[in-house]
Design goal:
Structural class of chain B: mainly alpha
Radius of gyration of chain B: 24 Å
Number of helices of chain A: 8
Oligomer: heterodimer
Helix content of chain B: over 70%
Strand order of the largest sheet of chain A: 6-7-8-3-9-10
Number of helices of chain B: 13
Strand content of chain B: under 5%
CATH class of chain B: Mainly Alpha
CATH class of the largest domain in chain A: Alpha Beta
Number of strands of chain A: 10
CATH architecture of the largest domain in chain A: 3-Layer(aba) Sandwich
CATH architecture of chain B: Orthogonal Bundle
Order of helices and strands of chain A: EEEHEEEHHHHEHEHEEH
Largest sheet of chain A: 6 strands, mixed
Distance between the termini of chain A: 41 Å
Bound molecules: adenosine-5'-diphosphate, magnesium ion
Largest interface: A-B, 28 and 23 residues
CATH topology of the largest domain in chain A: Rossmann fold
């Protein structure tokens, strides 16, 4: 068992068994909650093309509909209109039953490790319920993953015994072991302190360098967005659709020095302006804004 | 080969079993002092023939009676009978209550059908069931099992139902995202996530259970024995020390059953232990 691009026993990067792809096509997606009742239009005619292996970051005012878009992508919510393709195959369309799957795994805002399972049991949860792989080998793969990111020795701990930074890393490994094509991250580092956050950024960038999974990453932190992403999409206030798309042409691999780069500062200024404009709109619309 | 200075643990308490160490700390010492003072006060009350309390047996009589009881087979038979009463009624309450609570938590239709009955029956104190239960059930044992059952039953059902509704949506979604099927979500998310609520319901229910059991045994003491009936029989025969021995025994039995549940909880939920 191997995880793409990770470690010595990892499979060949473009070998015949390597799961290719991970390109997402979001076409004119609209999500309306409770259309006959309160009728909340969370996402409206949102279109986005995400290339396989791209790190896409979405920013926007709080409550603008970012999580709604992610939930539709993940298959947690049905969509009202439009369609979403993953590697050319439709994964969401109106009237289609919602189908979450291990090809696109979600990492949640507040962390969703199972508190009643140890670190190791959490990581092998996917292989266990998918019943595709022998559990012993999955456990070994989990141990390898932990070792590769310097987290050996915690496999028997329960999540509550770990710092939130370590919890987030474990949660990302729990997704990764399933060899997903896409990772959907909904403000995964919210609530971490600055130091823990910067450790997490380096961790995620390292993983990205090694795996080149498609990343769909939501945040309200502009520094984080530009530091991590290949592209940053600033969303309009509710209903959510792309307002501004910034190409981040900072070289990879990146480290903290990128934060002082003049290109970084320029991008940040542009993003800030767009976000501020939308935040003001949201504020005028009588909504709470936090972006 | 290492010298004694470096290796020998000179402090014997270091070697003591952790349970012993926990049992003999400052707090238990204070508790012991209170206990001693209480027994002295009790002896004084008897010695000075305080009004209204004149019939109170002196601590010595109780101690003697306790020793006699401990040495007699009948006393332990009463323990055994009470424990069986508790076990049957309580286990039945868990076996029926947990699935019902799960169903009510998961399925709105079940909840809407069953909940109104609960609203009506829950405020009825379990002891109020005694007359009906005696009329209804053909044997005294069944009556007692049923009464013991009503004590924790409602508490367990309502706790489990709340537990299901507290299951984090993110945990369910994370499981689905990792490829779980609905039955995995039930067995591997719903159940462990509600387990703490099950255990809380059982712990709270256990307290009520002993109340109900003792009342039931006292009422039916002519035909069925147990610690409650032992106490009541001592009352009707006017043997005061045995009444006190009965009360103490019931207290100890209640404590033991709660401790057993706590132990079970720690076994079943290791993730809650070290927090
Ligand atoms: N299940 C739901 N039912 C009704 N409205 C919802 C639901 N989920 C989210 N919303 C509303 O949709 C809007 C967008 O929410 P969300 O997607 O969570 O925003 P964001 O993630 O950008 O902060 C908010 O106004 C929110 O109140
Ligand atoms: Mg959100």
């Amino acid at each position: 068992m191997s995880v793409r691009g990770l470690g010595p026993d990892a499979g060949p990067k473009a070998g015949p068994d390597a799961k290719a792809g991970g390109d997402i096509s979001i076409r004119e997606v609209t999500k309306i909650y409770d259309p006959d009742g309160i009728h909340v239009v969370a996402v409206e005619r949102c279109s986005l093309e995400i290339a396989a292996g791209e790190f896409l970051v979405v920013v926007g005012p709080s409550g603008c509909g970012k999580t709604s878009l992610l939930n539709v992508l993940a298959g947690f919510e049905d969509l009202t209109d439009g369609e979403i393709l993953l590697d050319g195959k439709p994964i969401a369309a109106p009237g289609r039953p919602v189908e979450p799957g291990s090809d696109r795994i979600v990492v949640f805002q507040n962390g969703a490790l199972f508190p009643w399972k140890t670190v190791l049991e959490n990581i092998v949860y996917g292989p266990m319920v998918q019943r595709r792989r022998e559990l012993g080998r999955a456990r070994q793969a989990a141990r390898n993953l932990l070792a590769q990111v310097g987290l050996e020795g915690i496999e028997g701990s329960y999540p509550a015994e770990l710092s939130s930074g370590v919890q987030r890393r474990v949660e990302i490994l729990r997704a990764l072991i399933n060899e997903p094509r896409v990772m959907l991250l909904d403000e995964p580092f919210r609530g971490l302190d600055a130091v823990a956050k910067s450790v997490m950024h380096q961790f995620l960038l390292d993983l990205f360098e090694r795996t080149r999974l498609t990343m769909f990453f939501i945040t309200h932190d502009l520094d984080e967005a530009i530091f991590l992403g290949d592209r940053v999409v600033v969303m309009t206030t509710r209903p959510c659709c792309p307002k501004l798309v910034l190409q981040v042409n900072l070289p990879r691999p990146r480290d903290h020095r990128a934060l002082g780069d003049t290109r970084f500062l320029e991008l940040k200024r542009a993003a800030l302006e767009a976000v501020h404009e939308e935040a003001l709109k949201a504020f005028r619309a009588g909504e709470r804004e936090l972006a | 080969m290492a010298s004694g200075i470096l290796t020998a643990p000179s402090n014997p308490r270091r070697k003591a079993h952790p349970w012993l160490r926990q049992s003999f700390n400052r707090h238990t010492l204070r508790g012991a002092v209170t206990l001693v003072v209480f027994v002295i006060l009790w002896a004084l009350v008897v010695a000075f023939k305080v009004p209204y309390l004149r019939l109170l047996p002196p601590p010595r009589d109780v101690a003697v009676s306790l020793l006699q009881s401990v040495a007699s087979a009948g006393y332990w038979a009463n323990w055994w009978i009470s424990m069986v009463h508790i076990a049957v009624g309580f286990v039945a309450a868990v076996v029926v209550g947990v699935p019902l609570g799960l169903a009510m938590g998961i399925n709105r239709t079940v909840r809407r059908f069953v909940f109104p009955i609960f609203e009506v029956l829950r405020p009825v104190p379990p002891i109020a069931w005694i007359p009906l239960a005696i009329i209804f059930w053909p044997t005294v044992s069944l009556t007692i099992y049923f009464l013991v059952f009503t004590g924790p039953f409602f508490i367990i059902v309502l706790n489990v139902m709340d537990g299901v509704r507290e299951v984090s949506q993110n945990h369910v979604r994370a499981a689905l995202s990792l490829g779980a099927k609905p039955r995995d979500v039930f067995w591997r998310i719903m159940l462990p996530a509600t387990l703490p609520y099950v255990m809380t319901g059982m712990a709270v229910g256990m307290g009520v259970t002993w109340n109900v059991l003792i009342a039931a045994e006292m009422v039916t003491s002519a035909t069925e024995s147990g610690l409650g009936s032992m106490t009541w029989t001592a009352y009707t025969n006017g043997i005061l020390p045995v009444i006190v021995v009965g009360m103490l025994s019931i207290g100890v039995a209640g404590y033991l059953s709660s401790a057993l549940l706590r132990l079970l909880g720690e076994r079943l939920m290791p993730w809650q232990r070290r927090i």
